[in-house]
Write a structure and sequence with these properties.
Helix content: 10-25%
Largest sheet: 5 strands, mixed
Shape: globular
Order of helices and strands: EEEHEEH
Structural class: mainly beta
Distance between the termini: 23 Å
Number of strands: 5
C-alpha cells in the first residue's frame, strides 16, 4: 500500500485510468475505483494506492481509505453465492472468509 502519488496521465486512456507511477523499478497503472464503479470521487488526504499483484502483473487501485492490508492466496477463495454470481461475476471471482476474529 502506498500513500497517494499523483500519477502521470496517459493520453486516450479510459477515464478510470488515472495514469501511471514508477513503482519498484517498473511502471504501475493506477485505476480509480470510484470512477470505475461510477461512484462519487472522493479524493482526500486518506486516499491510498493498493498494489495488487497477480503472477508477474501489478496494478494500483486508488481507494478512499485503507483499514488493513493482508495477503490473499488463490486456495483461500470460495465460490460466490448465486445471488452475487448473477449480478457481479464480471468483478467478483470468489469470496474470502476473514481470518481476523
Amino acid at each position: 500500500m502506498l500513500g497517494y502519488v499523483n500519477p502521470t496521465k496517459v493520453p486516450e486512456a479510459p477515464m478510470f485510468v488515472r495514469g501511471v507511477i514508477k513503482y519498484q523499478e517498473s511502471i504501475l497503472p493506477i485505476i480509480d475505483l470510484n470512477i470505475k464503479f461510477k461512484l462519487q470521487s472522493n479524493e482526500n488526504i486518506n486516499s491510498k494506492i493498493i498494489v495488487v499483484r497477480n503472477n508477474s502483473k501489478s496494478i494500483g487501485l486508488l481507494v478512499d481509505d485503507v483499514q488493513e492490508v493482508i495477503d490473499i492466496y488463490e486456495n483461500e477463495l470460495e465460490s460466490t453465492p448465486e445471488i452475487i454470481n448473477s449480478y457481479s461475476n464480471k468483478y467478483i471471482n470468489g469470496i474470502i472468509k476473514s481470518r481476523i476474529e
